Amino acid sequence: MSQRLRTCPLLEHPSTNVRLRAAPAPWDLRRCEETGFVYLANPPAQHLFQDAFAWEATHEREAALRSEREPVVHAVSGWMKRFRRRVLRRDKMTALVASVLQDVARRAPQDPLRLVDVGCGEGMLAHRVVEQLPEGVAARIEPIGIEISNVLAQRSSRALRRHGGRCIHATGIDGLAKVESDSVHAIVLSCILEHEIEPLPLLRRCVSRLAADGRVVVKVPNYACLARHVRGSRWCGYRWPDHVNYFTPKTLVAMGQAAGLRVVRMTLADRQPLSDSLYAVFGRASQVHANAA
């Protein structure tokens, strides 16, 4: 079921690494000595994320496991998430993507706005973005989802059709290959890079699909957060085996730069150590078209 040991995903050559203790058997967590990047060295084969390790399956199993091991912590965490979403109405990813699209709309007041959500799940982010945008801007959105899960791809197709969009049932890299080069104004990688066995090729494919003023909006678990140090192997950002990459602010920036991206936004609030999540907005490092695989 597992692939042969992979090298550091941030590099394109073998490097010295150290095995870490956080992962349960048979999973092998490593830290690259050259880059500091933390990754699963023996991830499942990518095709298994279609069903056996699809998000909806692993999420349900993980929730049940955490509820059994730490019922109070699990209940409090769930309550806080619902409170932020329903009462405070905080949805940072939606706000970031809407802001990116509004900026593009001001510069190009007549053009369609293409939004690609890689790992789109049930396709609801596009709906939330459209709800936040002014009517004239929302009407110009062309949403495209990319989803590897068999079940979620079907649900996303139905959701995106309501906004004149579509879902591509594929991996992130293969799905982006079916989108025209230099055409996308916002590519969303929300909770997807930590699942991607080839994150650097995926980001390079994103660069080749971006319009000149396009942006890549990223959210990943924050491996540098305080909770990971306090909670150890019970940190909520660990998910075995579907989280195969663990990013700090430094390694996320390094990954983006290696792919041909530059940081447009990563404020202290986006990378604060008290948050389990890490955010960044990237743009092309230059106007020169990046080489695409």
Outline the structure in words.
This protein has a domain at 92-284: 3-Layer(aba) Sandwich (Rossmann fold), CATH 3.40.50.150. The chain has ten helices and eleven strands. The protein has helices at 55-69, 71-86, 92-107, 124-132, 135-138, 150-161, 172-177, 199-209, 226-231, 249-259; strands at residues 17-19, 29-32, 38-40, 113-118, 141-147, 166-169, 184-190, 210-221, 245-246, 261-265, 277-284. Strand 5 (141-147), helix 6 (150-161) and strand 6 (166-169) form a beta-alpha-beta unit. The longest helix has 16 residues, at 71-86. It is globular and about 55 Å long.
- Multimeric state: single chain
What is the share of helical residues?
25-40%
Say how many strands there are.
11
Poorly predicted regions are: 288-293
| CATH topology annotation of the domain at 92-284 | Rossmann fold
Distance between the termini: 26 Å
CATH architecture of the domain at 92-284: 3-Layer(aba) Sandwich
- Give, in order, the helices and strands: EEEHHHEHHEHEHEHEHEHEE
CATH class wording of the domain at 92-284: Alpha Beta
The 3D shape can be described as: globular
CATH homology superfamily of the domain at 92-284: Vaccinia Virus protein VP39
Structural class: alpha/beta
The number of helical segments is 10
Question: What is the fold's blueprint, element by element?
Answer:
Blueprint: E1 17-19, E2 29-32, E3 38-40, H1 55-69, H2 71-86, H3 92-107, E4 113-118, H4 124-132, H5 135-138, E5 141-147, H6 150-161, E6 166-169, H7 172-177, E7 184-190, H8 199-209, E8 210-221, H9 226-231, E9 245-246, H10 249-259, E10 261-265, E11 277-284
Parallel strand pairs: 4-5, 4-7, 5-6, 7-8
Antiparallel strand pairs: 1-2, 2-3, 3-9, 8-11, 10-11
Helix pairs in contact: 1-2, 3-4, 8-10
